[in-house]
Amino acid sequence: MREAMDPWTFVVAAYAIGVTATLAMVGWSLVSMRRAEKRRDAARER
Amino acid sequence: MHGFANPARFLRIARWLMPLCMSLGLIIAAAALGWGVFFAPAERLQGETVRIMYLHVPSAWLGMAGWMGIAGASFAELVWRHPLSAIAARACAVPGAVFAAVCLVTGSLWGRPAWGTWWVWDGRLTSMLVLLFLYFGWMALSQASEASDGGSNKAPAIFGLVGAVNVPIIHYSVIWWNSQHQPPSITMGKSAMSGDFLYPLLAATLGFTLIFAGVVLARMRAILADQQAEARLRRKARVEVEAF
């Protein structure tokens, strides 16, 4: 017997995970870059 | 390539190229995903689940491209000792691993309605999982050799080159072995796919590739800035000790 599955559940789950992971990676890379460049500038001024 | 060996010159280029890649990539990827979800048609056999393709295929490509980036940078490190090569390899590792993981998760979510199972141990899926573990191993080795080996990049560079063997295995796995996974629909200059599916897929691939490039450039800037800050603090500490 075949299970009745709603395909949109899988589509929405895939997009939620994929888009969240991509945005989190973009945000993390920008924040860590800003933080590192601030640290370098602070070391330059000390 | 040696023209970019100077970190100051690289930073001058990365300062405008990184935000350009990142913002263009986000716009194109968002538009392509919207096109794929709301305007592209459902597929005759797979129905609505085919829409997962617009996320799954770019992730698979970038998971493999990330390792090819590590392998290329490792080659440049071992042959030319290019000053930015080790930094580029380290910058490729995290986005490559993220996209390999997204590929596996979205593939599993596509497999359940399409094949009736979340996972099968066939050539394509297993070699992709091996790629994710290779990323974890490479990141651990890179951090360990940086901390203990006086900052030598030789071991991660050799690992990066040896691990590249897995990339053609992933690509050809569906041709070499019987697989639940479909064979490639797009080959050089040819596509078995209708334009209705192909164009949003190409747009999504372009968008995510630009995001990947932007993240790699941002990571390179972060690693370079960390190294410069550390070198400066070490130099100051040495001067203070000598003065004391």
In short:
The complex is a heterodimer of chains A (46) and B (244). With 46 residues, chain A is an all-alpha fold.
Q: How does this structure look, described?
A:
- The complex is a heterodimer of chains A (46) and B (244).
- Chain A has 46 residues and is mainly alpha-helical.
- Chain A contains one helix and no strands.
- Chain A has one helix spanning 7-45.
- Chain A starts with 6 loop residues before the first helix and ends with a helix.
- In chain A, 22% of the residues are buried.
- The mean pLDDT of chain A is 90.
- Chain B is an all-alpha fold and 244 residues long.
- Chain B has a domain at 56-183 and 194-223.
- Helices cover 77% and strands 2% of the residues of chain B.
- Chain B is built from seven helices and two strands; from the N terminus they run ααααααββα.
- A two-stranded antiparallel sheet of chain B has the order 1-2.
- In chain B, helix 1 packs antiparallel against helix 7 (195-243), helix 2 packs antiparallel against helix 3 and helix 3 runs antiparallel to helix 7 (195-243).
- The radius of gyration of chain B is 21 Å and the shape is elongated.
- Chains A and B meet through helix 1 of A and helix 1, helix 2, helix 3 and helix 7 of B.
